[in-house]
Amino acid sequence: MQTPPVTILNWLLAFSPIAAVLILMIGLRLGGDRAGPVGWLIAIIVSWLSFGAGKEVLFYSQVRGVWLSLYVLYIIWMALVLYRVVDEAGAIAAIGQGITKLTSEPTMQLLLLAWVFSAFLQGVAGFGVPIAVVAPLLIGLGFSPVVAVATVAIGHSWSVTFGDMASSFQALMAATNLPGNLLAPWSALSLGVACLGNGIAVAWVFGQGSALRRGWPALLLIGVAMASVQGGLAVSGLWTLAGFGAGLAGLLVGALVTRLPRYRSQTAGGFLALHSGAEDRPPMPLGFALAPYLLLIVVVAVAEFWPCLHRALNQVQIQVQVPEVQTRYGWGTAAGPSRAVSLFGHAGALLAYVSGISYLVYRWTGRYSSGAARRIVRRTVRSATPATIGIFSMVGMATAMDHSGMIDLLARGLSQVAGPLYPLMAPFIGLLGAFMTGSNTNSNVVFAPLQQHTATLLGVEVPVILAAQTTGGSLGSMLAPAKIILGCSTAGLAGREGEVFRKTLPVGLILSGVIGVLTLLAS
To answer: Whole-prediction pTM value?
Structure first.
């Protein structure tokens, strides 16, 4: 397979859709629903004029893009429904009040939710659920919406590779045809470093140096616990449980850390200003407020870990077959099915089950006032519309670039420029893939073979480079427009995604640079 030669002009052309999105979202502060269509249009034009993608290539790239978008939007739509169901009942404010009883210190509250609890949810639920669930909780505690979305996007990203039954790690194994016991040690080590780095970044985004000084005992104790458990499970061959186990360990250690004297007193008086839409109703018990999220954990865990139920729920898969297509330069995309959407076993379906049960329980117990159902539907549609436009356009842009060879050319250009310093660039290639596709799994599928081939040619340890690839892909999830759009939708920040992106971008680049240096030293 071939693409146009790697020249400065071709590389800049391939980068132009990404550049347009970055300029519009960061420079002009436009939302994903406005920046995405521009990036998509540029990708289509450049693919057609400069990369030889004809009508057939572009058509089937968009077919794949539509199905991948539906896979993502199923989660987004149902996550928004759950949030509105819970918020309408006043549960968000009740949870915030309950956490202040565990610890009233803001930095510790932020670490527990944005870093630890979001990683646990990533372990059992996967794409989109952590940011959709946790960001509203932080807003209920009084954190600014921008900080809430940014810190959750940052905080859970380290757990993406081994989260959701290690789907990204299994994609890495499948794409490279290498065994897990060869890939797990270096991957767990790199992700362990990223775990601590993410925690530090969460504290820094909130309160910079003062937050780090208050939070360093929690960062050290919880970070070591989560990284160690994840690494131990992954190296022992239990990588499907590594993300889940690490998050659970973090929750247990975090509960103990809150007993330290420095986290038992309020150090930022007046910070906690809980927002509630149910001030006229009796206070909701914390357990009752947490019930939908606890039910979500149980439902997802049972659906994933009980083989019989997992098979039963996933029997109905909706997908389309896509033929092999090829550009005029010879860059081909193999025939195969589109991304399958499990009608009853998808994470979106599980969210729907929990939303329905929660609504019935809250209604039965009198937590809703008149017109609650209409308000839930109206607010969900209002939040979902810009997210839907943004997801369809961003994913369509990514699939057009993939099918035309633009993404491959970008990666090859980076590797050629880097030369002997290629290991330093390896995590940035993984990060690029996750940014473009919104998924570390897709990043590993697209770029892991390229990284494996390049490492072999350069005589570099392949497992080290692939660990950098999947770690960069994990960190790239904090930059993925799909996740930022989702978080902003649930946080009432529709159209302000650029503000969040300006906070996550430096963190993603710095942490990927740290992983790159470690990869270079290890190579």
So the answer is: 0.74
